UniProtKB/TrEMBL annotation:
Domain of life: Eukaryota
Protein name: VWFA domain-containing protein
InterPro entries documented for this protein: ECM_Assembly_Org, VWF_A, vWFA_dom_sf
Coiled coil start-end: none
A Pfam entry, by short name: VWA
Record domain VWFA: where: 18-192
């Protein structure tokens, strides 16, 4: 397994960012583990430290027991990556994920910083079905919560236009599609890193592994 080295200065001076990750509420345990590995790859390329990037995670079943709060005392890269290892999230729905993200994850009492840019990165599985409620929650999150939403769709049945309804505009910069969880590799992580932080390529291919580059079968942006 390729383990990328830490590269803690990717975002340079564009520092004050609060990022919250969320897995699909309908993913199987194995797929959730792949999701968490993917989030770790993204996190490895970000400058996690006090006064810079903070990482949070929507917890299992949207309660506070397994949350990774933005106020974690040890907002350092190694500590955050270790914490992500302990989470196997299993939320109720993408709508509940979005609601929790807005009401709890980005609440100041849980460590959200007033002047920080707010970013949510959510994996949506094609097995979930209707996203009507999620669309409403996404609209509120974007407009009232001032959260920039990145959406990663997984599965052959997923509809691009439904993901577009969840994401921040311009949607083509905020929506990524893969055929399956195996395709959530380093190349996708690097694209997400660069979307979050335009200077995320300053460490080159060390961030996520150049050999994880896309092929015609990788499933990235496949529809």
């Amino acid at each position: 397994t390729f383990t990328p080295p830490l590269c803690p200065t990717v975002c340079g001076d564009a520092a004050l960012v609060d990022i919250v990750f969320a897995t699909s509420p309908v993913a199987a345990a194995k797929s959730t583990r792949r999701s968490m590995a993917f989030f770790k790859k993204v996190a490895r390329g970000l400058d996690i430290a006090d006064g810079k990037v903070h990482i949070g995670m929507v917890p299992k079943e949207c309660d506070s027991v397994d949350a990774v709060d933005l106020k974690e005392a040890e907002q350092k890269q190694n500590a955050v990556l270790e914490k992500l290892d302990t989470i196997l999230a299993n939320q109720q729905s993408t709508a509940s994920v979005l609601r929790y993200m807005r009401e709890a994850s980005f609440a100041e009492k849980n460590g959200a910083r007033q002047k920080a840019k707010r970013i949510g990165v959510i994996i949506v599985d094609d097995a979930e079905g209707s996203l009507a409620d999620a669309k409403r929650q996404a609209r509120v999150a974007r407009r009232e919560g001032d959260i920039e939403l990145f959406i990663i769709g997984v599965g052959k049945k997923i509809k691009r236009k439904e993901l577009y309804a969840l994401a921040t505009r311009p949607v083509k910069q905020h929506v990524f599609l893969v055929r399956n969880y195996k395709a959530l590799g380093g190349w996708v992580a690097k694209k997400v890193q660069k979307a979050i932080c335009p200077h995320a390529d300053s460490c080159g291919d060390r961030l996520t592994g150049a050999r994880d580059s896309p092929t015609k079968d990788s499933g990235v942006g496949w529809r």
